[in-house]
Give the backbone structure.
Amino acid sequence: MSEFILEMNHIAKSFPGVKVLDDVTLQIRPGEVHALMGENGAGKSTLMKILMGIYTADAGEVVFAGERLELKSPREAMDKGIAMIHQELNPILDMQVFENIYLGRSLRTSLGLVDNRSMIRETDALLRQLGIDIPATAYMRDLSVAQCQLIEIVKAISISAKVIVMDEPTSAITDKEVDTLFTQIRRLRSEGVAIIYISHKMDEIFQICDTITVLRDGKFIGTDAASNMTNDQLIRMMVGRDITEVFPKADAEIGGVILEAKGITLGRRVRDVSFSLRRGEVLGIAGLVGAGRSELVETIFGVRRKDAGEVFINGQKVDIRTPKDAIVHKMALITEDRKFTGLNLSGTVAENITLVHLPRLFRNGLIDHRLEKQLSDKYIDELSIKTPSSSQLVGNLSGGNQQKVVLAKWLLSEPEIIILDEPTRGIDVGAKRDIYLLIGDLVRQGKAVIVISSEIPEVMGLSDRILVMAEGRLTGEVARPDFSQETIMTYAAKFGE
């Protein structure tokens, strides 16, 4: 009898033009929290999609509880006791919480009717057990991203899975919710459930994981106990080189005010917020989930219609009612959720990069595909986007390269004010550094950058000045010489003031 609950042996997988996995082996023990690490594009997601029956391996085998599996769908995987919490959430927004949790496996009465009462009762019990204060009858569209993430975790636990894959499970939840999640992971581990844990947050890996397996460029690099590795060793295994400076801060000259916001108000989500932004400056915006950071910049950019307030660019009052107005005024917004609001996943890299600039491409009523390729190839080269060609579908790229495509799309408009909302969420250390270096290049060119990040070390490492929000209000401003996590968290926790 094998000591492993799950074995993926000598797995290989290719897509047109690229070999994604090359002889990869992953072995998981019962009751083990096993980190699967690697840069975006290393093959982690493809390996997990093979496990879940979404893809079929070209070679190799999957053995689960001693049985060789040839899964054809996620439903078959769930029936076997394998569940996955995806990084990119896909809740059915017009359904209630209990309906999402029991989707495709509704409880039935003795007469064969759907038993909503039992499903609501069971869901409420699970939510209470996990310390999650969300009604089973709440509609998904009324929940935050963090709450939707927690519901996915409840869903996986509800099927009594023997193996649960967690792909960036803490990317959109608060520290308190992370503590709740880790408590449940430890409980599941004690009950013999195996967890495959994928995250780019190194501190989490060493806090919760027993074992670490590293992939690089589709190849197996190594497996070892987490206690035998250091942070630097893990990064070296992932990227194949040392990264000596985590946050490379640009030495840029800070000039005059380019953007000024006065009294921006959006109901209770943004309350009378005023600030200024200078050329050559990186302005950080920190705060807990729900503080109103994204709502503030979306209101300034015209995504949301403000209730009150004024915006000035280069000293002139401007009327920004739509994102199109913002683009005219040389602004760019890279949104928090690249999948839903930043990209057309079924489009090519070239189509996505030039999406905002279609009028420039028309010649006699038709798109000039030669110009489209020329413009997109320029940014593929400048941003080091890993893709076989500009005609590759964006949905086939890694998360880090998808984020670079979003950046390329906006840089093509030559903006003067660039707003980055969680620009490194769910991407690896190598791609993060590329984006940090790009931010440095932008401010050296005299452009102004706003960075929203839930990771305090990141916002401190990149910013010249940090605004802190809580409950829609601006609660503090910290200059770089005074940066400290304690100061920022003190301002971020100023509730009800």
Summary: The CA atoms of residues 275 and 487 lie 19 Å apart. The chain has a mean pLDDT of 88. The first strand starts at residue 6 and ends at 15.
